[in-house]
Task: structure prediction
Amino acid sequence: MTDTIATDTLVDWITRFRDAVADKRDWLTELDSAIGDADHGSNMTRGMAAVVDKLDAGAPATADELLKSVGMTLVSSVGGASGPLYGTLFLRMGMTAGAVSELDAAALAAALRAGLDGIVARGKAEAGDKTMFDAMNPAVDAFDAAIAGGADISSAARAAADAAAAGRDATLPLVARKGRASYLGERSAGHLDPGAASTAILFDTLAAAIAGSS
Amino acid sequence: MKKLINAPEDVLVESLKGVALAHPELSVDLETHVITRADAKAQGKVAVVSGGGSGHEPLHGGFVGPGMLDAAVAGEVFTSPTPDRVQAATKAVDRGAGVLHIVKNYTGDVLNFEMAAELAAMEGIEVGTVVVDDDVAVQDSLYTAGRRGVGLTVLLEKIVGAAAEEGQDLASVVALAQRVNGQGRSMGMALTSCTVPAAGKPTFDLPEDQMEIGIGIHGEPGRHREPLAPASEIARQLVEPILGDLDFAGPAIVMVNGMGATPQIELYLMYAEVAALLEEAGVQIVRNLVGNYITSLDMAGCSVTVLKVDDELLRLWDAPVNTPGLRWGA
Result:
């Protein structure tokens, strides 16, 4: 049973996310070429490299400072729509997590929910718009449901990752209603949303980091 | 990919170095990618800031100077600049009378400028914003991010820049910007895709005998694709949606803009076609621009922008401007 995660695990998560985004850089950019402007892979790779460089120089000891630092670095290094959206996710997670060195399942759930709410407030996306929300919303719901069903934090994170992947795949047939892809109208159908794809990676690396720490 | 570059990741900064060398009348910050006028505007005047992804040159850096922009913030290629940089530009040019942000309606630009305005407000700088959304290619704004901001941005920056230069207050400048946005429309097309240096290959495949109608300025595919047609037919396909969206009878400023890889001879040819169609529809072209003003890297193609004007807008258009990309009367 994994009952809590320490800030080390959060750092491990962020580092794994950086590595996975760099590995999938070309794929993310390809997805973005189809319906956007061909920069999602390079922007996220640049942003996450900056985040990990900053953490390497000295990671804050508390979850709030750590997550807020991640958020601010993303806001100031990614650009595009992903910078403000991913940045807001981590900033809100940090504000909700508070000055603690460990998060239990309920605290992580609350932080993820706050991050999701932040993304909705900034991007105004709804289910089915073909955005990162379509992967993140089911992931956060699945995390909550798993915890409510008595799962430990590790199983809940895995359930969230699976839900994010399913949410990503479900964006394939959708017609985009937000972001640059929306300008394509019907032609945006038949492509995965790049933001949903990177979000699925975010939850997959969270699950891997938590599993690795237990 | 064949380009005059050293390494894809260095394109922006190395280009900005060139801008600084070529234009001593501008001041270029290689850290924040902010371009400002070397001689700052007088205290008490509204400052005008714009910006967005790079790759649209001369927009926006080429329009910094007396009578137009006080600062331009250059993002990575086709990627909006980050909020801290927009805020740095805002702070650098504020002369105590507030700052207008001119934002093209693209999700990334809107989100980053919105966060920048929040940051500026925290420092006590009053920011007004106009979101330019002139692209008639995007038809249904209820189910999209709304019309894109494209060619009208150039005309708006000129007119609003003149108003700020002559000392109009922030509320008037914002109202003027919104009026210009309401009276202008654009439509674009592509003969080829562009190639983003970091991606290394064309953003979309466009067969030799096909064209994209209704493109934006980032190599995003257009609304539809069809067989390549003669210029007269292309002009009709660009002008008709514009005239169908707003009654343009009367005086207007018209821009035929190249997307980066279309030669001037073709742009003038297109201008003749566009002018004939507009005249037929009762539009009286009182001023024009023909050339590369808001480009999409090495994309071949063009866009048409029509702005309905009255005496006031025309007076502001004719006011002196002295920038690398537009210069008259100065």
